[in-house]
Structure formats: structure tokens, C-alpha cells
Specification:
Helix content: 25-40%
Number of helices: 7
Order of helices and strands: HHHEHEEEEEEEHHH
Bound molecules: zinc ion
Protein name: Cellulose-binding family II
Keywords: Signal
């Protein structure tokens, strides 16, 4: 998809400063009784910039309203959970413990975006289970477990990297049906977490997120894996800001200017939801 968006890791790591406060969701109006009642009421100092961002996306995205594989679409199709498959493009061994840590960490990072959405304008989820259902490798011996808790794909190469079975991947089956996926729907994956040895920066899209395998492992105890968070943001539709300035600074999607989801990132994500939600008939 669009937004291959290479993020300059050196810049990103060097500058993390302004505007990194995470603002909780605004309180719902007093009369609201149900979660999801809070509507579009961004802070005044962000409103004009948010309008500019949406206009810029409308002007520059080829198929903004027709595209139907945003993470929003994936979430609704899977009724509030997300399955991943890991593309382990590395010869470094992976223990069962590391495998399980990666799943937990990925879920934590994914849910930072969900937390930014919870309670906003009918968004139906406050927490999304993230399940890693498969691993793809070049050599089975790289994976140091013998249990069958995840599917393992060996030697299926695409883009010069191991991939999980295409019949099980949503990117290849965007109608959400997986008739040729061994094991059926429970073994499908919505996105890939593509971990590449020696890679700096990242890439993200509807297909998933790609970051360095060393980056992921070495930052596994950090609260915010900001490159991964940024790339998940692309899956939600959010843009890059390498070539223009919306008039505010210091936010995650402006690579190198923040290391966590900020108030501005939160409102950009909410803008996507409010523009797309009618397609779900909720
Ligand atoms: Zn980017």
C-alpha cells in the first residue's frame, strides 16, 4: 500500500522532545452514559492543523475513501481482535520466551493506539487482543521451540524475506475469507510484523509493520517502541510529514519529533475514525 515511509531512525532517536505529552481522552459530556459518546471536539490550538492534515490527505491519497484495508477495517472485520504473523528476516535464534515476549510487546504497542480511541465517537473497543498466530523463517532451526502453539512457515520467500502463507493473510484476501488457509479462520493473520536484521527506521501500511529485528528486541523493555508505533499509525491511515508542516510540531507521525502518541496524533487518528465509521453501519 502507500506509505512505505522510511523513518530515519537516527533522527528519531536523537530528537524526542517537545509535545510528547499523552493526553487522556476528553471527558464525555455530563449527560452521556455510554462509552463512545465523546465526539469531535479537539482542543482549539489543534483544530486548524487537524483541518489542514485532513485536507492534505484528501488531496494526496489516491483512494482515501475507497480503500478498505485500513486497520479500522481489519478491526471491524475481526470483531475487535487482530492476528499477526511474524516475518523473522534474521538468522538470530528465537527462544520460546522471546517469541512470547514479542507477542506481548506488540499487543501493548498496538493498544496504545486503541487507548487513544477508546470512548471516542462510537469507537467500539477499549482493548484489542493481539495474537501472533504464526512465524515465518528461512530455517526452522532458528526457532528454538518444539510446541505447536503457532504456525511455522519455512522458506516461503517474498520480497527476499520469509513470509507467512498467503492464503492465510488478509493483505491477500481482503474479503476476509480464508478458504485455503490450513486450519481455517483461526489461523489467518490480519497483518505481518516484519522484523529485518540490520534495518534502521521502519515501514508501515495495511500489510503490517516492518522494523529492525534488533530494534524490536533491544527496545522490548521500553514503554514506547516509537518506530513501531509510528508505523502502526500508517496502518490507521495517518500520513507522514517529511515534506510539509501542518502548523504544530512535536508528534509521533512527524518522525523524529516525538517518541510516543501525542494529543495531536490522537486527534488525527480520531479524525480517521469519524470519517470512516459510517461504512461500518454501527
Ligand atoms: Zn512514516
Amino acid at each position: 500500500m502507500r506509505r512505505p515511509a522510511l523513518l530515519a531512525a537516527a533522527i528519531a532517536l536523537a530528537t524526542a522532545v517537545t509535545g510528547t505529552m499523552v493526553t487522556p481522552a476528553p471527558a464525555a459530556p455530563a449527560q452521556a452514559t455510554a462509552a463512545g459518546a465523546a465526539e469531535w471536539n479537539p482542543p482549539a490550538h489543534l483544530s486548524a492543523a487537524l483541518d489542514r492534515v485532513w485536507q492534505h490527505q484528501e488531496d494526496t491519497y489516491g483512494n482515501l475513501y475507497g480503500f478498505r484495508n485500513y486497520i479500522w477495517d481489519q478491526l471491524i472485520a475481526a470483531r475487535g481482535s487482530i492476528n499477526y504473523c511474524v516475518r523473522w528476516d534474521s538468522s538470530a535464534p528465537v527462544s520460546a520466551a522471546l517469541r512470547d515476549q514479542i507477542e506481548v510487546k506488540l499487543g501493548q504497542q498496538f493498544n496504545k493506539w486503541i487507548a487513544a480511541m477508546a470512548g471516542f465517537d462510537g469507537f467500539p473497543y477499549t482493548y484489542v487482543p493481539v495474537n501472533v498466530v504464526g512465524w515465518a523463517v528461512r530455517d526452522r532451526n532458528t526457532l528454538q521451540w518444539t510446541d505447536d502453539s503457532v504456525d511455522v512457515y519455512v522458506g516461503d520467500i517474498r520480497e527476499n524475506a520469509p513470509q507467512c502463507a498467503e492464503p492465510c493473510g488478509r493483505f491477500f484476501n481482503q474479503n476476509g475469507q480464508y478458504p485455503n488457509c490450513p486450519g481455517g479462520y483461526a489461523h489467518h493473520y490480519d497483518m505481518s510484523l516484519w522484523l529485518t536484521a540490520g534495518m534502521g527506521g521502519g515501514a508501515g501500511g495495511d500489510w503490517g509493520q516492518r522494523v529492525g529485528s534488533e530494534y524490536f528486541v533491544n527496545s522490548i523493555n521500553q514503554e514506547n517502541q516509537h518506530i513501531l508505533l509510528h508505523e502502526i499509525g500508517h496502518g490507521l491511515g495517518l500520513d507522514d510529514f517529511y515534506d510539509w508542516d501542518p502548523g504544530v510540531g512535536g508528534f509521533l507521525m512527524k518522525a523524529g519529533s516525538a517518541t510516543m502518541i501525542t494529543e495531536f496524533d490522537t486527534w488525527m487518528a480520531r479524525d480517521w475514525w469519524r470519517h470512516l465509521k459510517s461504512r461500518y453501519g454501527l
